């Protein structure tokens, strides 16, 4: 509130000026309205983001399922090695990029399938790498991976690597419930004896 004092030659008069203060509740309501609008916008953005992630996840799951089904078919098909390698590589790349979510069992099998196809195509070093990776991913695949590695080392002419692999296989097969495990064990025992006697063996 302001006061103005002026003099006109007579008695001084006081003139009162009008002043209207801001009411506190008007400021509070405005701030609340702004807050509500902001929360609505943020909520909309978060919802859209969640929906987007959900849709992407569904698409990735569908793609993973389709690739895995195609991989299973290609491993059984004649001359399907190049297709198997392509499909397996896509699945492995998707897993590494966290696009797909393969279990350790499935991922290990993917490496084993690709290793077998590499072996069939004579890409022996790549096959060897995949056999070893398959075991690291899923130790339950050790017998199959070692059998594959045995073939690769034999083709590479690495005779010194054959005995250690055969001995591992004999030990594993002795405790295995796989069909014909005992027959395979006996065959590998014969192979060990043949190598120790300087005889040629191939796998």
Q: Spatial order of the strands in the main sheet?
A: 1-2
> What is the average per-residue confidence, as pLDDT, rounded to a whole number?
87
Summarize the helix and strand pattern as letters.
EEHHHHHHH
Count of beta strands: 2
Helix content: 55-70%
Shape: elongated
Spatial gap, N to C terminus: 106 Å
Specify the biggest β-sheet.
2 strands, antiparallel
Radius of gyration: 38 Å
The assembly state of the depicted protein chains is single chain
Beta-strand proportion:
under 5%
Q: Tally the helices: what do you get? A: 7
Derived structural class: mainly alpha
Unreliable segments of 5+ consecutive residues? 1-7
Describe it for me?
The chain is mainly alpha-helical and 203 residues long. It has seven helices and two strands, in the order E-E-H-H-H-H-H-H-H. It has helices at residues 24-74, 81-96, 104-120, 124-137, 142-156, 162-174, 181-196; strands spanning 3-6, 13-16. It has a two-stranded antiparallel ribbon with strand order 1-2. A hairpin with a 6-residue loop joins strand 1 and strand 2 (13-16). Helix 6 (162-174) packs antiparallel against helix 7. It starts with a strand and ends in a 7-residue tail after the last helix.
């Amino acid at each position: 509130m302001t006061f103005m004092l002026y003099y006109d030659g007579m008695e001084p008069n006081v003139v009162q000026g009008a002043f209207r203060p801001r009411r506190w509740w008007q400021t509070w309501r405005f701030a609340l309205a702004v807050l509500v609008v902001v929360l609505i916008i943020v909520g909309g953005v978060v919802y859209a983001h969640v929906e987007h992630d959900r849709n992407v996840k569904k698409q990735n799951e569908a793609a993973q399922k389709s690739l895995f089904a195609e991989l299973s078919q290609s491993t059984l098909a004649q001359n399907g090695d190049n297709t198997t390698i392509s499909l397996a590589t896509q699945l492995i790349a998707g897993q590494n990029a966290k696009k797909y979510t393969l279990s350790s069992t499935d991922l290990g099998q993917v490496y084993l399938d690709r290793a077998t196809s590499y072996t069939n195509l004579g890409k022996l070093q790549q096959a060897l790498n995949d056999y070893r990776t398959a075991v690291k991913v899923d130790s339950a695949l050790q017998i199959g991976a070692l059998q594959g590695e045995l073939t690769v080392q034999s083709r590479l002419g690495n005779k010194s690597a054959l005995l250690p692999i055969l001995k591992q296989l004999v030990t594993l097969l002795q405790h295995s419930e796989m069909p014909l495990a005992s027959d395979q064990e006996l065959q590998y025992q014969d192979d060990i004896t043949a190598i120790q006697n300087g005889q040629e063996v191939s796998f």
